[in-house]
Amino acid sequence: MKISFILLASFMLFVSCSQEQKKQPNFIVFIADDAAWNDCGPYGNLKIKTPNINKLGEEGLVFDNAFLTTSSCSPSRCSILTGRYPHSTGAPELHQKLPHNQVLFAGELQKVGYYTAVAGKYHIGDPRAEFDSIYGGGPSGCENWMRAIKNRPKDKPFFLWLAAIDPHRDYQPNTIPEPHTLDQITVPPYLADNDSTRKDLGMYYDEISRLDSYLGQVMQELKVQGVDENTLVIYMTDNGRPFPRCKTRMYDSGIKTPFIVRWPEKLTKGRTDALVSSIDIAPTFCELAGAEKSETFQGISFVPVFNNYEAETRDYIAGEHNWHDYQAFERAVRNKNFLYIRNTFPELNASPPADAVRSITYQEMIRLHEKNELNENQLDCFEIPRVAVELYDVVNDPYQLKNLVFDSRYAKELLKMEKLLDDWKNMYNDTIQGSPTPDKFDRWTGDRL
Known about the structure:
By secondary structure, the protein is of the alpha/beta class. It has 2 domains: 24-307, Alkaline Phosphatase, subunit A; 319-427, 2-Layer Sandwich (Arylsulfatase, C-terminal domain). Helix content is 30%, strand content 15%. The protein has 13 helices and 12 strands. The chain has helices spanning 2-21, 51-59, 73-82, 86-89, 105-110, 145-150, 195-225, 252-255, 281-289, 303-307, 354-357, 360-370, 411-427; strands at residues 26-32, 61-67, 115-120, 133-135, 158-163, 231-237, 260-262, 270-277, 317-321, 330-334, 338-343, 389-393. Helix 7 (195-225) runs antiparallel to helix 12. The chain is globular, with a radius of gyration of 23 Å. The relative contact order is 0.15. Residues 1-21 have low confidence and may be disordered.
């Protein structure tokens, strides 16, 4: 009798352990719209009001080398959800609809029992069956985040794509109760430091803070529902801040993303410098959920980094700049030491997006440029023609301001990075279309043509 009891207890323990091993995590991706990687506390901006994002950083794993495949709204989102480079999704340019033959990782999660929902900015085209529920959003894009998490079926694991519109332009004053003041603003060296820029950045900060408040509500609701421990949360952005030399560009100010992963059941607090691309989310989530990794995925799972924060899953990342208001075709590869950029149309100036062209920041920069009052770090958008090839030492030049292409000391690195890009283009069949999409806005006023 005693032996039978011991055997029964052992069997129940085995069953319990097996069920625990098979327990699927929940997933939430908080994705900002146009927030720079370093405009929050975990990445060094201690003046901006992001207490909830800061808490994620205090409790989770902070990635210091996470990158997007493009710094352009809808192409970036399509790329993340398909796990493919923009030119491979069928929607590489702004506002193009994602073709229905493209595989979304949300659909792969559905196949293994997940409930999937998007709330906020959709921006990938037609409604898709891979999302069980699609909620819109108001001015911030975050207004229905709580509805999405409260209305989910409680008997299924879930994936929520919580997509803000904040901090996308246009900006309005007083979007938060205590707006940022001019003395709280950090102005990067490639922007003119004046009241116009600081006012503009302040309203941009305010919208990030508004997003942060909604993020905090969702994190609290996870605790209320008792699913906090086994929910993997990511905070990231879709592209850089909507300012000159940021959004749409291949510099860190364009394609680098905040990337904070919190998963209390599996991850302890820490930082990692492992290189990660936004297309790596698709295979990572599928692996953790026990779903098939679609053969269409071009990303690499970063699950090994969860097991060892010093692990490496890739040697480099690649980025694209395709049409976004203006004709463009740039490609970039970046590792931990160097960034290499190739520009197909150097005869065209590096205009920021049309809404940023219309901004008080850029219009003031145009005025200062006409008076020869900008310094050499602030001339990037005004150079015609531009240099067709760029190489930067990202360790010693974090803002990528000193082009090393013509420095003979870096000839070896230049050849190495050039070959890396060529090999990537061949591997992923990246070619320019015969008739590039032309400008649809004026490059100096931002007016629609």
